[in-house]
């Protein structure tokens, strides 16, 4: 519903996190509604767009994905430039990727804008039996760093829409 006062926001959203955590899969699940079992880590023009309509605003997402550069543990400044929102992803079945996620958050704090909307995503919730990082651990770290926390699965689609709605909602409030 495009009533009076309905804002249209264009928002650059960047994906961060170690290789293999599911960044590309999350974007593809959100944008195309599909999951690919053998998602090639290095594939991708690394750019997706999607529109979400809330009662407060319509958000046009420009989603920036890496094309494998995260293997060098840092990304070019242009990747962060102008971003309104960021998602830091780890794989809940790998403690190493959670440790590394904290490095990505620090990288974001160095390069990103002050009022960035930030989400911490524990992906691969379908691998619950192999979980290595507890919910409380993730939640606490997110809270300490001004991020919201959510557990997702690009495979089953659990919480994928919720993730992007949460970002859109926070953007609508902030801008
Ligand atoms: P990226 O390197 O962070 O972009 O990760 P990808 O999206 O390429 O995913 C790496 C691998 O993990 C691929 O084999 C995906 O199919 C798989 N994967 C991604 N998300 C999930 C998930 O939620 N659950 C499971 N079980 N596997 C996933
Ligand atoms: Mg990828």
* Bound small molecules, deduplicated: guanosine-5'-diphosphate, magnesium ion
The major β-sheet equals: 6 strands, mixed
Helix and strand content put the structural class at alpha/beta
Strand content: 25-35%
Return residue spans where pLDDT drops below 50 for at least 5 consecutive residues: none
- Average per-residue pLDDT, rounded, comes to 91
Query: What is the element string, with H for helices and E for strands?
Result: EHEEHEHEHEH
Number of helices: 5
Gyration radius, rounded: 15 Å
Distance between the termini: 19 Å
Would you count the extended β strands for me?
6
Order of strands in the sheet with most strands: 2-3-1-4-5-6
Basic shape: globular
Helical residue percent band? 25-40%
Structural key phrases:
single chain; 175 residues; alpha/beta; six-stranded mixed sheet; 5 helices; 25% strand; binds guanosine-5'-diphosphate; binds magnesium ion; nucleotide-binding; Small_GTPase; GTP binding; lipoprotein
Lay out the secondary structure.
Blueprint: E1 7-17, H1 23-32, E2 47-53, E3 57-64, H2 77-80, E4 85-91, H3 95-111, E5 117-123, H4 135-144, E6 148-151, H5 160-174
Parallel strand pairs: 1-3, 1-4, 4-5, 5-6
Antiparallel strand pairs: 2-3
Magnesium ion (MG) binds next to α1.
Family: Belongs to the small GTPase superfamily. Rab family.
GO cellular component, one term: endosome membrane
Protein name: Ras-related protein RHN1-like
